[in-house]
Amino acid sequence: MCRKTIEAIDKGHLTLDIWGNGEQTRSFCYIDDCVKGIDRIMHCADLIATPVNLGSSELVSINTLADKIEKMPVSNSGGSTT
Q: Which of 19, 23, 63, 70 has its CB surrounded by the most CB atoms within 10 Å?
């Protein structure tokens, strides 16, 4: 989604191409939280050879994400101001 947004801004397009109907969901987390989680998992003997789901329990639809991106202001240089 980031790549698609940047390409659309660079090309002056006013729309984003979304695969499917946009109702697919993803969970997002801050990279710092992800790195801390990976570190904790790597140092936990109880989790050796155990499947682990590292992420957020909050699911965001692609349509919701696109709506949020759409509302973000863009500077004259083409980049986001936030």
A: 63
